[in-house]
Amino acid sequence: METLTLLAIDDDQTVLQSLKLALGEDWRLVGSNSPTSIPEGFFHAAFVDMHLTGNLERAEGLDVIKKLRERDSRLEIVAMSGDLDRDLMEKCLKAGATRFLAKPLSLEEIRITLSKIEALILLQNAANRHPDQKYFWIGQGPASQNVRRQIAFLRGENGPILIEGESGTGKEVAAHLIHIQEPHKPMVTLNVAAVPENLFEAELFGHTKGAFTGADKAKIGLAEAAHGGDLFLDEVEALPMHLQAKLLRFLESGEIRRVGANESTKVNVRVIAASNRNLEDMVKKGEFREDLLWRLNGKKITLPPLRERKEDIQEIADWFLALERGRKKDLSSEAITCFKEYNWPGNIRELRRVCEQLDLISPLPVIQAEDVLSLIRPQQAVAPMENIDLTEGLNPVVEKFEAQVILGCLKKLNDVDEAARVLKVSRSNLYKKIKDLDIDWRPA
């Protein structure tokens, strides 16, 4: 890794010396004790004291922060002060600081802060890596920068982490980016919605030989396999209430008991849970345990939908198009405009599908607006009430109309996950309705 440069502006030589002691071999320190003499050059981070002349009535550091922010919009600026006045702290953040540390600083606190800043720099630089890089966050807009900062600040943190976001917003990518900040540790992934309810406990905690029919040999669970690392539980909102209690007990005790076993085993696992539904809303509806939400919600990231990241759409689309080896195509300015005017209900997953299709169907090296509109032109997702006999009675009519709504949405989006999000039902509930209403649909 390149040598990183820390700018420290403080009139207290003891603080500058503490920063120097806390720096690892990857950092070098540039110090200054004057609010008017800010060193020139490029810096990866800056620590700025608020009271640089000893006058506690004036916070000269605020002007320093503003000047540094004007120089570099991506600089990580840490404000420092022994004055913990709320108004001062809010002014620091408004001026452009990203964090506020209370004096006196401890060496451990400095090292932790620098470690998180280093993680953020690595995430920012990852966008320039080769397309073969499997996990990184694409986009330079404010929302993307905020996501990277939240991920970076989870480096070295213990305890459960919750990632919320609509289907297709990149929750799995975020989980892996959180994980790879801790090198040489295992990561095990479980899609909760994909595991049958009666097998979930055995899948997560393992089972002994003969614990149930078909258990011809003992098997460790995924929680035990993740010992010393991360366990990623995707679509945790699909977990039935009685199994939520078992997950809560595991989170609180760190103990697992294989199905059929009498004794428990302690494991050291950090749980990263992801949900495409708002768990607080589910709690209000009685669909999710409030105590489990409290346990998961201590460290939370909410990923923005693509419609709130439109400044990133071209960069993401260019990336997907570049993945198609041997058939590199570019987007015309008109095509980009079409992309940005579309609402992307399926988020990044839908954008990738559209890019893959455009690469195949566009006859020219430059993709035109008409090519894009052939795939994402606004359509009527809900079919009209045709072939419905109102004399049949309310319940049959409602069922037929519901079937038409679901079928229309599935045909438009061609993806059950995206349809479930648009219709605001769980994936398992949508599958049940498809079966109960005998909806004849197959993905294209």
How would you characterize this protein structure?
Helix 13 (333-341) packs parallel to helix 15 (369-376) and helix 16 (394-413) packs across helix 17. By secondary structure, this protein is an alpha/beta fold. The protein is built from 18 helices and 16 strands. It folds into four domains: 4-123, Rossmann fold (3-Layer(aba) Sandwich); 157-302, P-loop containing nucleotide triphosphate hydrolases (Rossmann fold); 309-376, Helicase, Ruva Protein, domain 3, CATH 1.10.8; 390-436. It is 42% helix and 14% strand.
CATH class membership of the largest domain: Alpha Beta
Shape: globular
Specify the CATH homologous superfamily of the largest domain.
P-loop containing nucleotide triphosphate hydrolases
Count of discrete structural domains? 4
CATH architecture of the largest domain: 3-Layer(aba) Sandwich
The amount of helix comes to 40-55%
**How many helices?**
18
What is the topology, as strand order, of the major beta sheet? 2-1-3-4-5
Which whole number gives the mean pLDDT? 87
Strand content: 5-15%
List the helices and strands and how they pair.
Blueprint: E1 4-9, H1 13-22, E2 27-32, E3 45-49, H2 61-71, E4 76-81, H3 86-95, E5 99-102, H4 107-126, H5 142-152, E6 161-164, H6 171-179, E7 187-191, H7 200-205, E8 206-207, E9 219-220, H8 222-225, E10 230-234, H9 241-253, E11 255-256, E12 265-266, E13 270-275, H10 279-284, H11 290-296, E14 299-302, H12 313-322, E15 330-331, H13 333-341, H14 347-361, E16 366-367, H15 369-376, H16 394-413, H17 416-423, H18 427-436
Helix pairs in contact: 1-4, 4-5, 12-14, 13-15, 14-15, 16-17, 17-18
